[in-house]
Amino acid sequence: MNRGARAPALIIFRAPNSTDIEVNDGMGRNIHVARSIVALDRALRRIRRAGKVALVPTMGALHKGHFALVRQARRRAARVIVSIFVNPAQFAPTEDFGSYPRTFAHDLAELGKLDVDLVWAPDADVMYPQGFATRIVPEGPALAGLEDRFRPHFFGGVATVVAKLFTQCRPDIAMFGEKDFQQLKVVTRMARDLDLPVRVIGIPTVREPDGLALSSRNAYLSAAERAAAPTLYRVLKGCAAKIAAGAPIARTLDEGRTELADAGFALDYLEARHVETLAAVATGKDGPIRLLVAARIGKTRLIDNIGV
Ligand code: AMP
After folding, report:
1. What is the whole-number distance in angstroms between the Cα of residue 247 and the centre of ligand 1?
2. Residue 10 has pLDDT above 60, yes or no
3. Is residue 136 within 8 Å of 156, Cβ to Cβ?
């Protein structure tokens, strides 16, 4: 991600407070941005006529990981909608909602290049109007004892906003990154449980050349933290290779935890889980196995996962 690169000038030729915005990216491409339910519905009527619709939900600060989701959406559907919404409901008061990177102009310029048909970018009071009082409480994979142990509010916020995005945009398919593996499982389960007519598709994690998974939060890392950050993936890969070769899981994970601590990480978890149920696994026979990790380096919390 080259956040320093200057985005081309964006020319907005309808007032931002109108229900529709048509944005010209300065290179002749128009991007349609809907910011109200009325504008979204109007755009959807046009879009749905073309055939299959894909949705890529994001919180903006877009990078190559997001773009991989958009490209996959493009390949599988006639029309692609990208939502950009930093969802307050999935941040605890102590977390980084206020400082979460917001790069809207840059995001629109990049989405223009990827030929996205519609950007759905509601404000918080459009998503959660006054009086809003309904929350989805996911169970199953949302209670696996991974992210939920450290961010107990998180999956309720995610499930609620994703259910709303699905009913607002009515996509045939929706792309989610394996980078947020537990989230992928929670959203897949929720769509099934609520009979939402959408197929959730998981897309492999996009990484920097040194292995660090791309994340909007990587922008928080100091130079020294950035240099240490790839250890997370290195440890995952090392543990996966040992477990695949038959090493005991518990001992292998303990060694991995020590390695991470030695590299300066404060570990939340490093766990081996069943790839579908996220249940704990004691031996390779309980698999197929996914290794999942979350750790803080300085003030930045990073997550990653890989298959064994
Ligand atoms: P976010 O904007 O962080 O909420 O992410 C939006 C979507 O992009 C989620 O489905 C993420 O899992 C996915 N995503 C984030 N980072 C990556 C990555 N490095 N590779 C693939 N997908 C990603």
Report:
1. 31
2. no
3. yes
Does ligand 1 have an atom closer than 6 angstroms to the CB of 101? no
The tokens describing 250, both together, are: 């518990």
Please give the pLDDT value at position 5: 44
Cα→Cα distances 262→40, 133, 232, 252, 266, Å: 50, 45, 12, 15, 10
* Distance of alpha carbon 99 from alpha carbon 124, whole angstroms: 16
* pLDDT in the model for residue 305: 98
Residue with tokens 């045939």: 172
Q: What does residue 290 show for φ and ψ, rounded to 5 degrees?
A: -120, 135
Contacts of 173 (CB under 8 A, 6+ apart): 52, 53, 54, 55, 73, 76, 77, 198, 199, 200, 201
Give the confidence band of 288 by pLDDT, cuts at 50, 70, 90. Answer: very high
Q: Which two tokens stand for residue 104?
A: 């809207």
Q: Is the CB of 157 under 6 A from ligand 1?
A: no
Which range has the worst mean pLDDT, 152-161, 231-240, 277-286?
277-286
pLDDT of the residue at 26? 57
**Total Cβ atoms within 10 A of residue 35:** 19
| Whole-angstrom distance, CA of residue 239 vs CA of residue 231 | 12
For ligand 1, pick from 59, 62, 66 the residue to mutate: most ligand atoms within 8 Å of CB. Answer: 66
Task: Count Cβ neighbours within 10 Å for each residue of 18-28 and write b for 16 or more, e otherwise.
Answer: ebbbebbbeee
Give the pLDDT of residue 287. Answer: 79
Give the 3-state secondary structure of residue 302.
Answer: strand
